[in-house]
Hints:
This protein is mainly alpha-helical and 163 residues long. Helices cover 36% and strands 5% of the residues.
Amino acid sequence: MSRGNLGRTFPPEHRARISRALTGLRRGEAEKEKNRQAHLGKRPGPETRAKMSRAQKEIGTRPSVSEGRRTRVLGDKNPAWHGGLGDVQYAIGFTNALKTKVRARDGFACFICGTGENGRAHDVHHIDYRKTNHNPANLITLCHLCHAKTQFRREAWLCYFGR
């Protein structure tokens, strides 16, 4: 539910109802201390610890000790996989001079958010996602953050850029 409501804004009436429902549910310091004293020195049994460990591994908040780190999802199982398109190399004509011309044409500003270059040159993006098409009409200036956004939902970005 929390993921489904992420970024969602509720009307003021709904927020007021939630606030009223939660009023008085917060524990006082005395109750917290009483609870702490009741559990002081006690450890959960092996069965409870095993359940807690499984739950932590399932939600991915902590890597298992045996793994040592979170495993990465590689290849076609990764949601960002586009059939190995990242393996295609840029054609010979995609030079620094061409990229500078495209940035100058766009006023050294990101096409999406409008931010100017600040110590780092903006990226030059292929609108049709084909690394071999270096037609200046197919190239656009994007800041690093906006360029990263365009790597997902490519069909929507093609429509956004007018293709």
